[in-house]
Write a structure and sequence with these properties.
about 210 residues, alpha+beta, two-stranded antiparallel sheet
Length: about 210
């Protein structure tokens, strides 16, 4: 999560909030009261939707005057979904996906201590799959049975390979899983040959630099 969180109070004009978002390159702002307690959240789309459309007959001066009178309180969402600092990252991702939201304030005793966004999850995904480290990336269908991952890692150890990343995902049927594994220190052909007796089939294998 990002620990340096910029917040606003409900009386901030929407123009000022939009300027903050543009300057600091983010898309949502937690809204807090005078004690620093979370009372809402506002997104870039909330602020943009509060602006007059291009079809308005108002003059620029009239538009600016009206916008200066609209505050965060008028457009913010007050029913805010939050997580605690010890919430598992996959639980935070599930909450964001189920509720179709792009960010979650992280709270402690009602106070905002951080925020986690889609960008943070993408970064973690890259780390989990070792995206920035060269190696052979193999994806295979593996029978859903005890000991299969052990057999795979043992075979790689016998090749003196170094496992950079390993992830398991839903398979094609309830009886199998998709396993993606990234290995350094082995050739593509050697890795495939070692895996073939253990797995159902290779889905994809490629060298990643």
């Amino acid at each position: 999560m990002k620990k340096l969180v910029i917040t606003v109070t409900k009386d901030v004009p929407i123009q000022e909030a939009l300027a903050m978002m543009k300057r600091d390159k983010f898309r949502r702002l937690p809204v807090v009261d005078e004690r620093g307690k979370l009372i809402g959240i506002v997104t870039e789309s909330d602020l943009l939707n509060a602006s007059p459309s291009d079809a308005t007959s108002l003059s620029v001066w009239e538009i600016n005057y009206l916008l200066s009178k609209i505050t965060i309180e008028k457009v913010m969402t007050t029913r805010v979904i939050t997580v605690a600092e010890d919430t598992p990252i996959e639980e935070a991702a599930r909450i964001m996906s189920d509720n179709k939201i792009g960010g979650l304030p992280v709270c402690r005793n009602g106070e905002v201590i951080g925020i986690i966004t889609e960008t943070d999850l993408f970064k973690i995904f890259l780390e989990l799959l070792g995206a920035r480290t060269p190696g052979i990336r193999l994806t295979a269908l593996v029978q859903e049975a005890p000991g299969k991952l052990h057999d795979m890692t043992k075979a790689i150890d016998e090749l003196d390979g170094n496992i950079i990343a390993l992830g398991t995902f839903m398979g094609e049927t309830p009886g199998n899983r998709t396993v993606t594994i990234k290995v350094a220190g082995v050739s593509k052909d050697a890795l495939v040959k070692a895996m073939e007796p253990i797995i159902e089939r290779v889905v994809d294998v490629r060298e990643m630099s």
